[in-house]
Amino acid sequence: MNRIDRLTGMILLLQGQRVITAEQIAGHFEISVRTVYRDLAALGEAGVPIIAEAGIGYSLMRGYHMPPVMFTEDEAAALFMSGVVTEQIADDSLSQSLKSALLKVRSVLPQEKRDYLHQLKDKVSVSFRQSHDVGKRESLMPIQDAVVRRRCLRIGYNTASQGDITERLVEPLGLVFYARRWHLIAWCRLRKEVRDFRLDRMASWKVMDECFQEHSGFLLKEFLRKSIENHELTPATVIVERGALERFHGEIPCTRISEEIQQDGRVRLELLTYSCEWLGGWLLGFGTRVEAVEPPELRDGIRDAALAVAARHAEEFSVV
């Protein structure tokens, strides 16, 4: 990055933060703190109103904004590509806001860059399997707003183990997308602890007027890390035909420890899984191209499920 681009980026970084330290700026641009001081001095000499507070950091004078920034072709393409990916996991409300934002980006581009993005749109697509409950796809933005504004949520939650719907009053702390689903991390007043709620299991929800105090000691990334560590993982061994290996690697729902090519050309993989039942259901989709070796409950579960499927399809089909 040349210095002009870095100075412009530094103004944008300051504009997007209430206050930021020289060390944080240095880390963002991967430069030394001494270089940050020189750049900030240059911006000040150029008339950019930068406020320096000892022991706190740097900020821009309130009310100062850069004029609209022109995107380069690469920057515009990067925004478009991120939008294509995000649209796959976003709900309807977020998708509409995303489309509106990208439309504004395109509107400030010169014609040749708009033509470039138009061609890119026709030649780029992202698709992956994802479970959606269409009836609840509009819920993400209001829940996201409740997280930011610290507004309580009253939810009707369908538990996986019992299938019962229980009413919970929760304090939303964060939204996370993992395992191809959106999850609300929230303090549950019923259980008196932070819990993980899948959005597709919310039968109902309502944003309440009541606000809650910030959970000052809560860190979302730390909670997720500990949640993963506290789950008991089961070692599993499977053998995959070479022709199915690319799909296996692309969709694998658990941790891969090692893999070894056997004499017959197939690949032996050592895995760690949270659930043999869940892993077995996924492996069934590969048919005879995957063989479960161990543990016995994984192999037995796949066999029993396959026999049940075969028995069901051996029956004569009739329409009632």
Walk me through the structure:
This protein is an alpha+beta fold. It folds into four domains: 3-60, Orthogonal Bundle (Arc Repressor Mutant, subunit A); 73-123; 134-230; 234-314, Alpha-Beta Plaits (2-Layer Sandwich), CATH 3.30.70. It is 42% helix and 25% strand. It is built from eleven helices and eleven strands. Strands 6-5-4-3-7 form a five-stranded antiparallel sheet, covered by helices on one side. Strands 9-10-8-11 form a four-stranded antiparallel sheet, with helices on one face. Helix 2 packs across helix 3. The chain starts with a helix and ends in a 6-residue tail after the last helix.
Tell me the layout of helices and strands.
Layout: H1 3-15, H2 22-29, H3 33-45, E1 50-53, E2 57-60, H4 73-89, H5 92-107, H6 111-123, H7 140-149, E3 151-158, E4 165-178, E5 181-188, E6 193-198, E7 202-211, H8 220-230, E8 234-240, H9 245-251, E9 255-261, E10 267-273, H10 276-284, E11 290-294, H11 296-314
Antiparallel strand pairs: 1-2, 3-4, 3-7, 4-5, 5-6, 8-10, 8-11, 9-10
Helix pairs in contact: 2-3, 4-5, 4-6, 10-11
As a percent range, the share of helical residues equals 40-55%
Largest sheet: 5 strands, antiparallel
**Helix and strand composition category:** alpha+beta
Radius of gyration, in angstroms, nearest whole number: 26 Å
InterPro entries: CBASS_pafABC_assoc_protein, DeoR_HTH, HTH_11, PafC-like, WCX_dom, WH-like_DNA-bd_sf, WH_DNA-bd_sf, WYL_dom
GO molecular function, one term: DNA-binding transcription factor activity
Protein name: YafY family transcriptional regulator
Keywords: Transcription, Transcription regulation
